[in-house]
Amino acid sequence: MRMYIGHQQAVSAEDFVELALGTPVDLWLGEESETEEERAARLDAARDILADNPSLPDDVARIAAEVIEAYAPELFNVVPLARPAGHRRSSRKGAAA
Known about the structure:
By secondary structure, this protein is mostly helical. It is 53% helix and 6% strand. The protein contains four helices and two strands; from the N terminus they run E-E-H-H-H-H. A hairpin with a 2-residue loop joins strand 1 (3-5) and strand 2. The longest helix is centred in the C-terminal third of the chain and has 20 residues, at 56-75.
């Protein structure tokens, strides 16, 4: 199945997020090897983007909720565990013998 955001094809999950947000994921998450100057520049750019797009955090939360709802069966593939066969203790009420 091919996924498109607008006219762009999303090949990976990261592509999908980047196309949906309109910004690279690394802008928000950073990179392990970034210097303090790179981090400061990245955070400045992120603040500028948020100032220009105040609804972006709400849009991201909405997109995440829609994805979770659409893929919930696969994301939360929970299988009930079989209960071991055995004796169940019956609860006794009253005085101990």
